[in-house]
Design brief:
Largest sheet: 5 strands, mixed
Radius of gyration: 19 Å
Shape: globular
Bound molecules: fe (ii) ion
Strand content: 15-25%
Structural class: alpha/beta
Number of domains: 2
CATH architecture of the largest domain: 2-Layer Sandwich
Length: 326
């Protein structure tokens, strides 16, 4: 069985093709990069509308398959930016209807976990999912994927991008913040915003800007923001692992490429006799292969959607998904 998946929740439009053994036959992406400022949802959607058909063609060529070889068409149903979601959902519906193949809408957050389960040795991990739009700690418990902790305001990557813009590092600031942080050493006081099992990031950004106005260096600000926010993520992840007695932690999302975050989580895992898993970079960031794989296992487990079931859901909750494939 072969599945084609289309991802388009935010700035990335991606098309992936997988088989039922979990082999990734193709995984192509194209990212919308605003000239100035942050992501404008309508402009990102226009980008996806222009690029989605060429990406589908490119993916099938790369996989060496014809359109008729596709058994199921999958797409990111949410959560995400409305115009982006609607664009890729329209593309997926058109493809499924033309090919007369089934269609499966996939929860984007769960797909980060499922691709990690098939492409790493993790079997039943706690997922630390840290990206631009999302920050969640997710695990499977009592028949469902449950959120054990999450951001109360903005995704950690979104905060990094805003901070990067404010201090002049430009858009997609994560790697630039990581580089600057290596040169920093002074731990500036920032709010450590863990509330119960949830986290908040926007106040940290405000406090960091306050330090900047007082003349603190960009390097020390980046260092302090990383140390504080990554400690928060690590703490919440550890508490989830302890609470549900899991000894595997999986990382997902763009922000987990950060080596300092990986170092902190792997040390926490080692201290508790657990293991950390990080999928390949191309599968960690938003991509079509994770959507294709999750849609494929959902389809094999009997998930059957009609076109009217494929309405997008900007606030699609991880714990709203009925899990029939585990
Ligand atoms: Fe994501």
């Amino acid at each position: 069985m072969i599945a084609l998946g289309i991802e388009g929740t935010a700035h990335t439009c991606g098309v992936g093709i997988v088989d039922d053994k979990g082999n990734v036959l193709a995984n192509v992406i194209d990212m919308y990069r605003p000239a100035t400022g942050g992501i404008h949802p309508r402009e990102a959607a226009n980008h996806h509308a222009e690029i989605v058909v060429p990406l589908v063609t490119q993916a099938t060529e790369k996989a060496g398959i014809g359109f008729r070889d596709i058994d199921v068409v999958c797409f990111s149903q949410g959560p995400g930016l409305g115009p982006c979601l609607r664009t890729v959902a329209t593309g997926a519906r058109a493809l499924a209807l033309t090919l007369k193949k089934p269609i499966v809408g996939v929860n984007h957050c769960i797909s980060h976990l499922e691709i990690g389960r098939i492409k790493t040795e993790a079997q039943d991990p706690v997922l630390l999912y840290a990206s631009g739009g999302n920050t969640q700690v997710i695990a499977f418990a009592n028949g469902k994927y449950r959120i054990f902790g999450e951001t109360l305001d903005i995704g950690i990557g979104n905060m990094f991008d805003k901070l990067g813009r404010e201090i002049g590092l430009g858009y997609y600031a994560g790697p630039k913040i990581e580089k600057a942080a290596k040169e920093g050493s002074k731990l500036l006081e920032l709010p450590y915003s863990v509330k119960g099992m949830d986290m908040a990031f926007s106040g940290i950004m405000t406090a960091a800007m306050h330090h900047r106005s007082k003349g603190e260096s960009i390097e020390d600000i980046c260092f302090s923001v990383q140390e504080t926010t990554f400690a928060m993520l690590t703490e919440v992840t550890e508490r989830a692992m302890a609470h549900i007695e899991k000894d595997e932690v999986l990382l997902g999302g763009g922000v987990v490429q950060n080596k300092r975050l990986q170092e902190m989580v792997s040390r926490m895992a080692a201290d508790r006799g657990a293991k950390m898993f990080v999928p390949d970079r191309t599968l960690c960031m938003d991509n079509g292969a994770m959507i294709a794989w999750t849609g494929l296992i959902m389809h094999k487990a009997g998930v059957n959607m009609s076109i009217k079931d494929t309405m997008i859901d900007q606030r699609f909750r991880t714990d709203d998904v009925i899990v029939t494939w585990r």
